[in-house]
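Why Phosphogluconate dehydratase? Reviewers of the renewal asked for a concrete example.
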Amino acid sequence: MNPVVAAVTDRIIERSRESRARYLSLLDRARDGWIGRPSLGCANLAHAYAGTPEDRAAMKADAGMNIGIVTAYNDMLSAHAVYYRYPELIKLWAREAGATAQVAGGVPAMCDGVTQGYAGMELSLFSRDTIALATAVALSHGTFEGALLLGICDKIVPGLLMGALRFGHLPMLLVPGGPMPSGLPNKAKAAVRERFATGEATREELLDSEIAAYHGHGTCTFYGTANTNQMMMEVMGLHIPGAAFVNPGTKLRQELTRAAVHRVAGLGWRGEDYRPIGQCVDERAIVNAAVGLLATGGSTNHLLHVPAIARAAGIVIDWEDFDRLSGAVPLIARVYPNGAADVNAFEEAGGMPFVIRELIAGGYLHGDILTAGAETLTGLKPALENDALTWRDPGASGDEAILRPVSAAFSPDGGMRILTGNIGRACIKVSAVEPDRWIVEAPARVFNDQSEVLDAFKRGELERDVVVVVRYQGPRANGMPELHKLTPPLGVLQNRGFRVALVTDGRMSGASGKVPCAIHVSPEALGGGAIGLIRDGDIVRLDAVAGTLEALVDGAEWLARTPAPAPAAADGFGRELFGLFRGAADEAEKGASAILASAGL
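Here is what the prediction returned.
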């Protein structure tokens, strides 16, 4: 094992010793005092069986596992529209395995791509907590011996896992749907966005460009949060191996889903291979998730999601762990925005099987974790042979501009940094930023909302070296929205030769790239975080080489300042309903979760 990965793993195990022991005790109590079908009353069971008369006899005989399906289906998300017929197919495939299946419940699944830049985006992060609660409700009936979790996109997978891990005595698998076929290349799409930001493209041209990029069923094809979720499930062993990036509507995709149903049906405590999800998601699996994130240049949103998932399993990982791992884990993939290729080209070049094989061989992944999707973590690629599912070695990289072996990595480190200084702690992703942009020192221009930034850009007020500071965007202030609308104008300013950076206590899109962004600044402005002390004209230095984030203000003056007044809490669009979550949320480094904080986890 790489010594840094081993040391970080040991650090997490030691830090989590008490909380993990409490969690495992919870699993033991749930297993030993199981509220399940043999112990439920007859009226309770009759209610549970009434909706599935075709399986009632098998359920009554308690002949095999009853699998709960928790689904994020809706047809407003292209990635989740594929789930429309999954429940009926899963029921058929469950019968093949001597099991039954029922839809236990649905969870909300919003699309950040639809809400970016608008009021609905302020519900996005806390939709993760809502999904976790909905998952718990779905699994609370005590009528399931295992579960399949149908979800893909940004907050959905973390939310499903956070809820599912509180039922960690049950075996479970995540079932992906795959990416849409490639459309307009991501780089071409970004170019039209920048042209629109400068008035050089019409709204009709922009809409046509966006529709050409986002055109069918499946995940968006850039390597943002949704596809980073799929990578993580692979390295954690919670998928059927190689399932992440197979396109929807193909025979291979169908057979991978069928294999997931058969697999989970064999993992219950009545068999000889009991693999509860709470045992599978241990400290080593969490380290695998962090290593995979760094090795592939994944979404910065997972610096929130991985700590939250870990906490739900009694595990504590912090940004220092990510920082140490980033210094040791090589970057072996370049997928947009860290390169020109999309996830379909990444899959064709070898995909996750290649990544897993290389990282295990290099000593960066824990290959001996308890996996749910297969006997062990494997770097084998799925294929069809005479219509039967099989797995093969992925061979050499199909394109070393996209995917490289550890021995020829794009970079010796993972490209994420933790920044510290008098402004607070923040994260920065530099894997897509040119090295000559890793240090920016410039006067600050301070805003309370991204719309104010866009207006200032349109007025020409940012045509200079500038550090754009957007405060009061943290979880307690307004739910920590992504500030993705800022990517085109800041990119335009950088293209014009200015030294530009963003500093915010909010989030940036998991697909953002070339502009240096210090994000998730903690403590956040609401409540007195130092980002609220920055004033227009202060010189701010973002140094991703040294790992610092400083306002170059006289120390005595800095300490004498009081935070700028917080804007009034916004209402409408349902935002007022999430006031309880905002008030209870903890800091970004812990995962920015209200429900985990309220539960004392």
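The mean pLDDT is 94. This is the kind of structural detail the renewal will allow us to pursue systematically.
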